């Protein structure tokens, strides 16, 4: 016996056997109702409550809640009603409306040819808070209590923003009695009213920008569906990294707009843009919105991306030149443009003087040369007084006297100043200005003198002039007449020829 036991254990098959499938019918929900995105309608709105969409429903492909009856094909009956979200699942005050709906629930016969059944045109109609007790009493009267919750337990608060679908299915008795046998109850996932911000679907409608600096701090305006300012956050994530946007409750505007600042990226030394995901999240139920892309850009100090624009423009021009069907000639570098600047040219000086008055505007200022003739010194008679000071020397520009040779003036050098104690020189008194405002250089000196005897300063008799300056007693001149208080004859002739009038003595010039 002991020898046979190892042989039995050796040949024993210990592999796992698939269990025999059960033949008992049961209900399975293969398409859950969509949790969010549907609005509960009031009866007073006077419009259809819509249709409950399926979980995989899209804008192009519509689906609806669907069940499958496993291990059974044949006639049957189904009832769908609304129950509370939390257990025990009490009858909900809201009711189902649509085709084949009455007293707040849906009931219809099942097709015997198939075991998958989809339910369309089911809407949810909500009741007002003041009608809450009446609606619950109606559920009890119509025996709409799938879980047979006692009446005492049905009192209390109801979550009017969330419901569940309860599927009750009856099939024929397999024994063949013809009676309908109920199958185990099945409830769907919660359906939330999209009108309530604490249960509504989270959705990002629009943002003003989808990129920012890797350092964070960029201000973003986000438009969304209704949210609760104390129960919402903006989440950025990529792989294992996660961060939240920075904002306060005051930055949530009327539950539909959020102004926040982006968080810094984990790697702030980026060399190229990085794409992350951005979404809304509700902390209370961990509900999130559909994520959208957000790009973190390297921080290069060029906030306006000027260098990137220049490079893009340069590359675009190169591509245009390469693809151009015509030859492009690049002009050679031009020399800088010359700008004409007006220059005032100096007026050339004339080589000599002319007798034309119109040409005197171009002459430089003249300095009258002093007489070079050295007159004999005469004894000075008169009252004892200091000699008159010498005439001031004018600091005029130097003039080449050879240019004035036609005036008959000697161009010899000016004599040196007299030695101390010498007799005063009266030559400066001969340099008297002409009256009448005319320029004395505008005409020749010979034209001023009618007598050819007076063609130079040396020919003037200065004796009479000296007597006049001495202011002494009467002195007789060459002709024996008294010359006191009279001008010398030479000065009178000069003045008469300049003014063209009769002299001071009353005699006509000879």
TrEMBL record:
Keyword Lyase included in the entry's annotation: no
Ranges of residues in domain RHD: 22-198
Keywords (A to Z) from UniProt: Cytoplasm, Nucleus, Phosphoprotein, Transcription, Transcription regulation
Transmembrane segments: none
GO biological process: animal organ morphogenesis; antiviral innate immune response; canonical NF-kappaB signal transduction; cellular response to angiotensin; cellular response to hepatocyte growth factor stimulus; cellular response to hydrogen peroxide; cellular response to interleukin-6; cellular response to lipopolysaccharide
InterPro entries in UniProt: Ig-like_fold, Ig_E-set, IPT_dom, IPT_NFkappaB, NFkB/Dor, p53-like_TF_DNA-bd_sf, RelA_RHD_N, RHD_CS
Renumbered residue ranges of the record's region Disordered: 47-66, 348-393
Location in or out of the cell: Cytoplasm; Nucleus
GO molecular function: actinin binding; ankyrin repeat binding; chromatin DNA binding; DNA-binding transcription activator activity, RNA polymerase II-specific; DNA-binding transcription repressor activity, RNA polymerase II-specific; general transcription initiation factor binding; histone deacetylase binding; NF-kappaB binding
Gene3D superfamilies associated with the record: Immunoglobulins (2.60.40.10), Rel homology domain (RHD), DNA-binding domain (2.60.40.340)
Cellular compartments per GO CC: chromatin; cytosol; glutamatergic synapse; NF-kappaB p50/p65 complex; transcription regulator complex
Signal peptide, first to last residue: none
Stated name of the protein: RELA proto-onco, NF-kB subunit
Taxonomic source organism: Chelonoidis abingdonii
Gene: RELA
